[in-house]
Amino acid sequence: MSAALAGHFKYGKTVAGRGIFFKPNQGVDPETGKMDPDSTEAHACVVAEVEVDTETGDVKVLSLRSVYEIGRQVNPALVEGQIRGGSVMGLGHALYESTEPYYPSPEHRPGGFFEYVLPLAPDVPQMEIKVLEYPSVDGPYGVKGFGEMTANAPIPAIVNAINNALGTEISCHPVTPEVVLAALEAKRA
Residue 63 pairs with which residues in a beta bridge? Predict the structure, then answer.
């Protein structure tokens, strides 16, 4: 039995720890101005393929092709899960979810999960994921932080794919059917 389990279940105590990593200041080369402000940042490229119904404004994301450079993968299965889950979350933000009109006022927000619009299993597109490993020289174990970017990177990819398909200039999200139809009407005018 691990010490944490024994502490919790046998003795009723919580075993907790804390850790932190600070990157050493690399300074600025006075001759060239070159510096390394943050080399533990990951990088991503996402390409979306969409199908847009110009009569109803419905958008279907057919595929998301992603390449993530994340440093060293400590747990490849969790990395893939983070990318897949983040991609679906990004799809939800791009097409369904909004913080308006209720932010910061809560009176118009969904009252529960049955009122909350989010992607369902049939909405999940085909995904192709590539992971590049270029370990960070100063991150712990060579890893780079990439968690949040997996939900952020699909949003502009999806909106740009919609604009490319329609020849529009939609610059907001969620791209609801009403937004698509208004963009097409503006294009015709």
Answer: 49, 126
Cross-strand pairs, 126: 63
The answer to whether the Cα torsion of 24, 137, 38, 127 is positive or negative is negative
pLDDT tens-digit series, residues 110-149: 677 777 788 999 999 999 999 999 988 776 788 888 888 9
Distance, in Å, from the CA atom of 131 to the CA atom of 154, rounded to the nearest integer, reads 16
Give the CATH number of domain 40-188; options: 3.40.1190.10, 2.60.120.10, 3.30.365.10, 3.50.50.60: 3.30.365.10
Neighbour count for residue 179 (Cβ, 10 Å): 19
Residues labelled catalytic = 148
Please report, for residues 5, 20, 35, 83, 169, the alpha-carbon distance to residue 14 in angstroms, rounded to integers and kept in the order given. 9, 20, 43, 32, 54
Predicted TM-score (pTM) of this structure = 0.76
User: What's the N-to-C CA distance of the chain in angstroms?
Assistant: 71
